[in-house]
Amino acid sequence: MVNESIIKRLMSSVKCAVCEQRYEEDGIRIIGHQEDLWFLSVFCSACHSQLLVAAVVKEDMAPEIITDLTKTEQEKFRNMDRLIANDVLDMHNFLKDFDGDFSRLFSCK
Ligand SMILES: [Zn+2]
Predict the structure, then answer these.
(1) For residue 61, is it left (φ>0), alpha (ψ between -120 and 50) or beta?
(2) Do 38 and 97 touch, CB atoms closer than 8 A?
(3) Separation of 109 CA from ligand 1 center, angstroms?
(4) CB-CB contact of 34 with 95 (8 Å)
(5) Cβ(65)–Cβ(16) under 8 Å?
(6) DSSP 3-state of 58
(7) Distance from the CA of 24 to the center of ligand 1, in angstroms?
(8) d(Cα 104, Cα 46) in Å, to the nearest integer?
């Protein structure tokens, strides 16, 4: 059974997309999930970048990061204000109807 502490432990082995420092568990926030597909907000303590990540996570396997953020997108997320409660709520609502279209997911502001 994959739970949040397993997600955080597995994600702490993933390197920051911007500076390649490993994420710390404290910087990993879970937004929601559908079965093995998890949506996370990760904050890098080294370069202070914050990214939204979609990853397929299975117990005791390295997370497979399935978003492929371009440099421009990384800039956008880096400059984005911290997620606020409403955004997380929106994400939860959005996930109910999520159809797997990641390009649409990450082009929304
Ligand atoms: Zn970093």
Answers:
(1) beta
(2) no
(3) 22
(4) yes
(5) no
(6) coil
(7) 10
(8) 29
| Spatial CA neighbour of 30 closest among 5, 60, 47 | 5
CB 66 within 8 A of CB 54: yes
**What are the tokens at 39?**
């949506």
Residues 6+ apart with CB under 8 A from 102: 54, 66, 67
DSSP assignment string, 13-52: TSBPTTT-PBPPGGGEEEEEEETTEEEEEEE-TTT--EEE
Residue range 52-86, pLDDT digits in tens = 888 888 777 777 776 655 566 666 655 555 544 44
Q: Are 43 and 50 in contact (CB under 8 A)?
A: yes
Residue predicted with more confidence, 15 or 71? 15
Average pLDDT over the chain, rounded to an integer: 74
Residues near ligand 1 ion, CB 5 Å cutoff: 16, 18-19, 21, 44, 46-47
Residue 97: per-residue pLDDT: 65
